[in-house]
Amino acid sequence: MGFPAMTIPPAFLVSPVRFVTFSCFLILSGLVGQENPPIPAVEPEISQPNVVLIFCDDMGYGDLGCYGSPRNATPNIDRLASEGLRFTDFYSAYCVCSASRASLMTGCYQARISMPGVISPGSRVALNPDEITIADLLKSKGYATACIGKWHLGDSPQTLPTAQGFDSYFGIPYSNDMKRKRAWGNDATNLDRIWRERRWDIYENELYRDTKVVESPVDQTTLTVRYTDEAIAFIEANRERSFFLYWANAMPHVPLFVPDDRFDPNPHEAYRLTIEHIDDCVGRVMETLDRLDLAKGTWVIFTSDNGPWLSKKHHGGSAGILREGKGTVYEGGMRVPCVMRWPSHIPTGKVSDQVASTIDFLPTLAAITGAEISEDRPVDGRDIRALLDDSGGVSPHDEEGFYYYRFNKPQAVRVGKWKLKHEVVGKPELYDLRADPGETRDLVKEQPKIVERLKAMMKAKEEQLKTEARPPWKAREAKKAAEAG
Ligand SMILES: [Ca+2]
Hints:
Number of helices: 15
CATH topology of the largest domain: Alkaline Phosphatase, subunit A
Helix content: 25-40%
Number of strands: 18
Radius of gyration: 22 Å
Number of domains: 3
Bound molecules: calcium ion
Strand content: 15-25%
Strand order of the largest sheet: 8-7-6-5-9-1-10-11-2-12
Largest sheet: 10 strands, mixed
Shape: globular
């Protein structure tokens, strides 16, 4: 189990395809004797896995059965964990939607790619199409690529998924509560009524296929089912080649909706029913992978873009044992569930307490597929292959630090068990996350040397990304460039 570890010439380190060619050459030319046992070829399931990346919106650390939810039954997602790996210390790279998604797609902290926390429909700023996304990277290795669901990185033709490496797109390109009719609020009282009365019609959300609007307003009661149908159709159509499916559910971001056959008018059941419906849809996709005999060579990842939206009360999720939720740099804002299954590489039933993040997916996939990361687009994420198998690897973030970015600045850093939270406003706070994951005992006074070291690391990271920041896409500049021909 695991990636082959052996001495091979540097020229062959880059590409598994070239590596396989090299192995064949050695075998065919008789260079491999008893002293030099045959080098195993890299199986396609290892070097070109299918990737199914399921990204939920505002789902909290405590919302799944396998993370101890006493309320939500999630047997399918729990099975992904028991057949693969569950991270206990996994982080989204930002505490709200757009910047979190931009970081996932590019492997960079938000400040490096100049992405605002949240953008609105018709935003004049978006993720720059010059950035290399996971879809760009995998497409360069021959993958079929599809984005289904919430994009939230731009909704103009120049910035939608089809301009960012995806062959196709189907979804609402921003949050499902945006474009709400004026008479309606977004607090728990309004959300109670919206749930009871099934009022998806009070939103003017647009459903896109590629760059065209195909439904407005969107019937959100059937949205998750339709996303799932689309995901299954994509997998079926690409069963003979490597594929990357990015499936970003609109929910459990509010407003919550489920199909008629799952509906209960009690709004206190809304969140549970929504999570359980998502779990059921994940099960349908798992069943498809099994049916097509693709499960072994498919890396399925299930995680969330940020913590629960606690101000929505019973319409929001739970951070479990963690402090606070969405919109904060306490653990509840950014530490999220992450389970993954990839039978060719990940042992069953593994639990990892190593620090990992959504920014690590791009560099890890680059290492797996042999795609090169362009020198002029450095990333902040790291190759975490060593955390996936049973080789006992430690987090690359333990030394470099994992940074909790907000408003273009690191507002906290985690190094090993230590976390320093030092926002622009407020006093520094230091926590030992191994002993105190709920951030209840501030150790600033007891550990002044650690505080100073972590402060210096935050300052250095801030300066580095200030210097290296790349520009976002701007509507006005794009228009000028188009007019100039
Ligand atoms: Ca979110």
